[in-house]
Write a structure and sequence with these properties.
Number of strands: 7
Distance between the termini: 72 Å
CATH superfamily of the largest domain: CorA soluble domain-like
CATH class of the largest domain: Alpha Beta
Structural class: alpha+beta
Number of helices: 9
Helix content: 40-55%
Largest sheet: 7 strands, mixed
Number of domains: 2
CATH architecture of the largest domain: 2-Layer Sandwich
Order of helices and strands: EEEHHEEEEHHHHHHH
Length: 372
């Protein structure tokens, strides 16, 4: 599928057939899918006089190609990986899986060629706005660079939509990790969440490198020059060579959006690592509490065991052995010793109330009022 759209000051028009020449005002947008990745090359060569390298055509057909930028003396090429589908909202417990596919942009003087997936929502929404299909049609772009930045910005905005489902899935994992009465046994979701966070970081870094390389080359004024078509050239104004001030603002806005996604992915990974560390710290603390309780119980029963051992020795004469109240005095002494040791351990904070009375009773205590 190939669509030719003429974009000028009066708006955008969908052409029935490829144009014979480039318009004097405005530019032409050639939008095609991956299955027609080479059908536009002859028309583009006839319009601009530039031939596309075979290696670049192969890159445009490669569905696994990472985001990158490359330029020649006649055109520029940007590969940008977009989000294929948002996670299923019907299953919030599922870790969102990132599915991406590349979109390739060829920038010629007065011509923009895009090679993308047939069901790309970002391209369809941008084209509908330009053609006035959707309500609130936006202003027609003045240059191919501006249209490319609009599409790239729409792609990055879809990555921003991932923040809420990723944050909800991460919060659920954190609650499972820090649950006091639940021992987590399935670590696979945690590994998947960490892998997706790392993958999102890699995608954003590749996108950021591609956009910044394109912007830096334009600002340096080397390589491709947009010529007399559109508003891409600064024309000796205050803007940097090869890029107008308006396009610099749009490019900076795109970079900031990518940075937001990248920072969110880094925060998500750091939060996940913190949750794992808290889990192991809580597990170690719980183990220490159990060992301290068992040690205190052992220390309490140690003198009692000593008393029973003494009176259990095989001697004929033991003080109080034949007394009718000797047994009860011994039990009373053992109880007093146990209570005294228990009070001593509680006073020294060797034991907590929850160790014997349970967490529920300890939780019934009203919270302490703040001072003042």
């Amino acid at each position: 599928m190939i669509d030719w759209i003429a974009i000028g000051p009066e708006g955008a028009t969908l052409l029935d057939q490829p144009p014979a020449r480039l318009p004097e005002q405005g530019f032409v947008w050639c939008d095609c899918s991956h299955d027609a990745a080479r059908a536009w090359t002859e028309t583009a060569t006839a319009l601009t006089g530039a031939s596309v390298f075979e290696a670049h055509l192969l890159d445009a057909e490669n569905l696994n190609h990472p985001s990158y930028f490359e330029s020649t003396a006649d055109y520029e090429m940007i590969v940008f990986r977009s989000l294929a589908a948002l996670p299923d909202e019907g299953d919030p417990a599922e870790i969102p899986r990132l599915r991406t596919r590349p979109a390739t942009f060829f920038l010629f003087p007065g011509l923009l060629v895009t090679v993308r997936a047939p069901d790309s929502r970002s391209f369809a929404a941008t084209r509908d706005r330009l053609l006035g299909v959707r309500s609130g049609a936006s202003r027609a772009p003045a240059a191919p660079e501006e249209l490319m930045l609009r599409i790239l910005n729409a792609m990055v905005d879809r990555y921003l939509e991932l923040r809420q489902p990723l944050a909800e899935a991460l919060e659920r994992l954190q609650r499972e990790l820090l649950a006091p009465r639940r021992q987590i046994r399935d670590w696979y979701p945690l590994l998947e969440a960490r892998r997706e966070a790392r993958r999102l970081q890699d995608l954003c870094e590749e996108q950021l490198d591609a956009v910044q390389e394109w912007r830096d080359e334009r600002l340096e004024g080397s390589g491709y020059s947009p010529g007399d078509h559109g508003a891409g050239a600064s024309g000796g104004g205050r803007g940097s060579p090869g890029l107008s001030e308006a396009l610099q603002v749009r490019a900076s806005d795109l970079v900031s959006h990518i940075d937001r996604v990248l920072n969110h992915a880094r925060r998500m990974e750091a939060s996940l690592e913190t949750a794992v560390q808290l889990h192991f710290s809580a597990t170690a603390h719980q183990t220490n509490e159990v060992m301290r309780t068992l040690t205190a119980i052992t220390a309490i029963f140690l003198p009692l065991t000593l008393i029973t051992g003494i009176f259990g020795m095989n001697f004929e004469f033991i003080p109080g052995l034949h007394s009718p109240t000797g047994f009860w005095w011994t039990i009373a002494a053992m109880v007093v010793i146990a209570v005294a040791l228990l009070a001593l351990f509680r006073a020294r904070a060797f034991l907590h109330e929850s160790a014997f009375l349970g967490r529920r009773r300890a939780a019934r205590r009203p919270p302490a009022r703040p001072p003042g």
